[in-house]
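Students often ask why inverse folding is considered easier than folding. One informal answer: many sequences map to the same fold, so there is more than one right answer. In these notes we will look at a single instance of the problem. The structure comes first.
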């Protein structure tokens, strides 16, 4: 299938004991006709309800990706999974974070993913598949093999993942500018690096070269502070040309551009409070973090598709890099205001074709000392 395909993913999971024997089910339907396009179900062994529900979501997203769907409407009767994946609830259970990260990696493959809670009676197809998986595992029914496609979950382990087929992303914040050194909001203003920023960029290039001499591409936001940082890094890693990606540009801070936090708090106290409380709120005449996240996810999906199994240097700004790391770590929105990224700081993550993600470092700065 090709073109603009919008699908509905209905997913569910259950555990008889919590934890206990568990299974999941997922149904992918055409969003227009309601036709069932694919079904997935499998037993998981002993697990909790929440693990089974996340596993159902992952199976449904994988099935949608197989169909080359572009837009996905996720519907589940698990309020927890829906709210956590939508970024409105924090993921406090450490056991769910790897599953949420895997789901977030799959989400990046689509142009748009929305989440909606539905009551259990409207999720009966996925619920029936989850129960069938548990019944089959218990020997209560004969497995259907003709029209069902069985997805066996990958075994999970704490062992270091193999780098085979992984795309390594080296995320670098641009070097210092005059705005950076003064602690001012610097969005779309095209300010150059300071002399210190140039030195930081060269140092970052040395660190990147230490991570990988075999760099396949150097990508940058279109603003000069990122392009120049990328050029200096490229000079240290084989002299590749810098490719500009418009969607890596910084958040548009609107009327707050060039202002300090204190100045914004004094001039726009109500707007600042709203902005800090919700990623859907934009600065006056600016851009919300939700909008930034959408375009950055799209950019990330294009990068992974264009450079499979390669090392790619991505030079961008605070907001895009924070949003990439938030999604990779399946963190809540509070993460955005708690993580500090230094000028020319380096973060590294690996992404596999199946959506798995491993964040290896965040905001390395030893090269700047």
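Output (designed amino acids):
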């Amino acid at each position: 299938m090709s073109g603009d395909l919008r699908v509905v993913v209905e997913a569910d999971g259950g555990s008889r004991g919590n934890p206990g024997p568990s299974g999941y089910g997922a149904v992918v339907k055409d969003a227009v006709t309601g036709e069932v396009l694919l079904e997935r179900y499998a037993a998981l062994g002993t697990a909790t309800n929440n693990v089974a529900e996340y596993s159902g979501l992952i199976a449904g997203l994988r099935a949608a990706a197989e169909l080359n769907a572009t837009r996905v409407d996720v519907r589940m009767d698990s309020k927890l999974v829906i709210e956590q994946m939508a970024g409105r609830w924090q993921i406090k259970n450490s056991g769910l974070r790897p599953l949420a990260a895997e789901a977030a990696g799959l989400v990046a493959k689509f142009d748009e993913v929305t989440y909606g809670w539905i009551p259990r009676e409207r999720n009966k197809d996925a619920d029936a598949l989850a129960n069938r998986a548990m019944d089959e595992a218990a020997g209560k029914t004969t497995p259907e093999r003709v029209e069902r496609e069985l997805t066996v979950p990958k075994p999970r382990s704490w062992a270091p993942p193999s780098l085979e087929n992984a795309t390594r992303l080296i995320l670098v914040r641009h070097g210092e500018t005059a705005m950076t050194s003064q602690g001012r909001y610097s969005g779309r203003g095209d300010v150059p690096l300071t002399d210190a920023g140039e030195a930081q960029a060269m140092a970052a290039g040395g660190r990147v070269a230490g991570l990988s001499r075999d760099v396949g591409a150097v990508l940058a936001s279109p603003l000069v502070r990122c392009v120049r940082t990328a050029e200096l890094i490229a000079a240290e890693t084989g002299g590749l040309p810098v490719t500009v990606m418009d969607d890596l540009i910084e958040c548009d801070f609107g009327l707050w551009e060039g202002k300090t936090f204190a100045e914004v708090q004094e001039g726009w106290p109500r707007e600042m409070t709203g902005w800090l409380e919700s990623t859907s709120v934009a600065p006056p005449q600016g851009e919300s973090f939700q909008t930034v996240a959408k375009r950055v996810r799209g950019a990330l999906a294009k990068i992974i598709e264009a450079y499979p199994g390669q090392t790619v240097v991505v030079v961008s700004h605070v907001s895009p890099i924070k949003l990439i790391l938030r999604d990779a770590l399946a963190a809540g929105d509070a993460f955005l205001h708690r993580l500090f990224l230094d000028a020319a700081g380096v973060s590294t993550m690996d992404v596999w074709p199946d959506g798995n993600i491993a964040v290896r470092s965040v905001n390395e700065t030893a090269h700047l000392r």
